[in-house]
Specification:
Layout lengths: L4 H12 L7 H9 L20 E2 L5 E2 L2 H10 L7 E5 L5 H7 L4 E6 L2 H14 L4 E5 L12 E6 L8 H5 L1 E11 L6 E8 L5 E9 L22 H8 L1 E2 L6 H5 L9 E4 L7 H18 L3 E7 H11 L23 H15 L8 E6 L3 H15 L1 H12 L8 H11 L5 H12 L8 H25 L4 H23 L5 E4 L2 H4 L6 H4 L6 H9 L3 E15 L8 E5 L7 H7 L4 E5 L6 H7 L3 E4 L10 H5 E4 L1 H4 L2 E8 L22
Parallel strand pairs: 3-4, 3-6, 4-5, 6-7, 11-14, 11-15, 12-13, 12-14, 15-20
Antiparallel strand pairs: 1-2, 7-8, 8-9, 10-17, 15-16, 17-20, 18-19
Helix pairs in contact: 1-3, 7-21, 7-22, 9-11, 12-13, 12-16, 13-15, 14-16, 15-16, 16-17
Organism: Allosphingosinicella deserti
GO molecular function: protein-L-isoaspartate (D-aspartate) O-methyltransferase activity
Protein name: Protein-L-isoaspartate O-methyltransferase
Amino acid sequence: MTDFSEAREAMVARQISDRGIGDPRILDAFRTVPREEFVPDEARAHAYEDGPQPIEAEQTISQPYIVALMIEAAELSASDRVLEVGCGSGYAAAVVAQLVDEVIAIERHHDLATLAGARMERLGYDNVSIYEGDGSKGFAAEGPFDAIIVSAAGSHIPDPLLAQLAIGGRLVMPVGEPNSVQQLLKITRTSEEDYEQEEVGAVRFVPLVGAHGWTEHGDRADARSPAELIRDFAEPLPALDDPAFGALFDRFGDARVVLLGEASHGTREYYRARAAITRRLIERHGFNIIAVEADWPDAASVDRYVRLRPHREGEEAAFQRFPIWMWRNVEVDDFIRWLRRRNQDRPPAARTGFHGLDLYNLAGSMRAVIDFLDDADPEAAALARERYGCLQPWSRDPAIYGRIALSEGFARCETGVVEMLRDLLARRVDCMGEECEEWLDAAANARLVKSAERYYRVMYEGAAESWNLRDTHMFETLCQLLDAKGPDAKAVVWAHNSHIGNAAHTEMGQERGELNIGQLTKEKFGDQARLIGFGTHAGTVAAAHDWDEPMEVKEVRPSLAGSYERLCHDSGVERFLLDLREGADGRLIEALLEPRLERFIGVIYRPQTERWSHYSECVLPRQFDAWLWFDETKAVTPLPGAELPGEDETYPFGL
């Protein structure tokens, strides 16, 4: 009988150790297992060659180095239970058996499974069990597993294998097309819902044939369309007033910031859904900041109402400028009243605030800074009047200032507004008391004036620069709120999809160089920020035909073919949540990664030019962490224009 010990030692040294596999346990395992016993008799002389070798059933035994690479990536411990998919002749299972407590191996070919089982028994590997079956389904009866090693390439990581991985477990598998270079992936399960992925290297493997892999002919066994995949993975939504609706979003409760979008500024279901989600996040998960796509002075009036703070004499009612219906509607009104009731029996420090992020109300912000300083520092108030006097002539129509600055070639008011902000930020305040709230309000208004002065100057120089300045201002205001409220502060943001979806994965970011709050928040907070987009197929919406024109209830045209909205409509599920985070089903994510059109309706809606006015190309699974779908929606209900009889005079929407 031929002695292969020298060949085995040479294989370990030259093919494995010299290529960077240095774990002594792994090297010893390869020295121990007789590879010649796992190939047909006629191939024994070639068993230790540096490459794959043919075995029965027209299959192959992998190159020794690749087997070692996969085992190293799996980070095996002596107490582990390991599942091997596609065990072939059993060689890799035998090597793994030297390193772990137990190996469960699955092989779909009857002859190979029978031969491998006989080898294990003959060679004494009593901690290895060989089963015949579809390895793409895993082996749920024996799970969970500390490690799963898949010796065949799939189009994606099968869901059953992910589900059978223990928390902290590692899965190693090649992913890619048959007969081509594939990528060896390592997946680590970090929690019930979360997985981390890393690339190990380029490889070539036979295809994983099975229900969650390929067919015998090289086609995907799961050939469902993107719409069918959405149908299968969508989580149907309960009624908006059902507590079960809010409970669906508990999965995002551990985030620091949850950003809730909308595909229009005038859709009832979006506002009601955001209110229900926000209530749940406040009540169950400790969120204490609501930050909305609205101007700071207007939202501050609402904030004083919901946190039962004193009303400011002479202050205008909130949200009286175009687009009035965006915040002065029945849906927002209901939420604000609920928030005041919730805050009523809580100490001031435990009350949830309502804050604006936007920068349009220049006049209101200048007035708010001066009012604060009139009480806190009359001399500084006089200086503020002087500095802001430069902007005062244009405060009601600041775009005129932008045109003048452009024609004059300089920023005549910039120095004063920058100095005003600097002076306010330099003030020392006690941020445990009411003084902090007033200072925070004044500082935010001073920041708004500074940003607005620049915004109206650059708006004539290019859309990207003005957009980026506006969203950067909103992001900085959000960060200012979080910092002021302390390390335990948690915020919910209400803004349009165009602001909260990660711009880096949209046409606006890739083609136009625009960023947004969602992108900046993801870059700063990572997985502590969750971005949730909203969409609809058809219905009605509150919108205007042009800026400063009256609101109309407009019919929303059915979504365009080739859009994400059309895929959602074609799924046949009327209302659903689609979780798009890392660790979601690979087939769904892969099917949605192709860039597609997505609809954006703001306060303006022009159905006649919808394709060019309201659609942009995006990559949905990279843009959002989740997607909320309402197939047919209705317009918001604007509040009546007059104060209701008996209304509290401090109510922010009163006239």
